[in-house]
Amino acid sequence: MRLYRRKILSSVRFAKANNLFENLNSVYETISSGKCEHCNSCCMEDVNANYIEFLNIYDYLKKNNLYKAYKGDILKYYFTRLYRNSPCPFLQKGKCGIYPVRPLPCRIFGHLSKSDYEKNYEAVLEQNKDAREYFKKRYSVGLPEEVVNYKIPYCNEFIKKKDMSLEEGRDLFNRVFVLDTAFLNEKLLNPTFLNTSLAGWFAYLEFGKLRSGKLRIQLAKGTI
């Protein structure tokens, strides 16, 4: 997948030349502080990550010689995620290996009120049910109920100054997405790659998008 790798390396250079990583951190810094007990119960989801966030994480892993150490776990997580719940591959010995560069969904977890968190879960649950129907009709793959209905419990232990509203959360995601438009304009990012999960970005890097999708379906069917 040399084409993917070359494009990602070009994207990292473009991000650095245009201060996009600094702009991403500026968005992160607007999130109010909170105290987490690091129970790791929230580290059970393959969260979506914008391209700029993936690049930031990829660059961090490369600079710290961590990419090879995590690659196997990331790919295993991605390819088994359709039929098995398992902890985030970056969670190692109870600690997040990418904590300084973790993506936005991880950063705002615990900041919503309980009622807004439940509303958000209901929306995610509907998406999961739609995905179940899609995989059943398109690939004859049945997603287990424990995967479709899996819910990370609301964190009552997270200490914060005030709740973040759903509107404030959406604004943060929009601001990060704006950074991705720079890559779209430079044709460094294909629009079909939008809404990719963090583990998905790494799978595409190693196998390409089409092959990654085929391998995941074959594994879910047990044909390989």
- H-E string: HHEHHEEHHHEHHH
Major sheet summary line: 2 strands, antiparallel
Amino- and carboxy-terminal Cα gap: 21 Å
Structural class: mainly alpha
- Helical residue percent? 55-70%
Our Rg estimate from Cα atoms comes to 18 Å
**How much β-strand is present in the residues?**
under 5%
Helical run tally: 10
Silhouette: globular
Runs with pLDDT <50, length 5+? none
Q: Return the average pLDDT rounded to an integer.
A: 94
Describe the structure.
The mean pLDDT is 94. This protein has helices at residues 2-17, 20-28, 51-63, 67-80, 104-108, 114-139, 145-148, 166-185, 198-207, 209-221; strands at residues 34-35, 91-92, 95-96, 159-160. The strands form two sheets. The chain has a two-stranded antiparallel sheet. Helix 1 crosses helix 3 and helix 2 (20-28) runs antiparallel to helix 8. A hairpin with a 2-residue loop joins strand 2 (91-92) and strand 3 (95-96). Helix content is 58%, strand content 4%. The chain is globular and about 50 Å long.
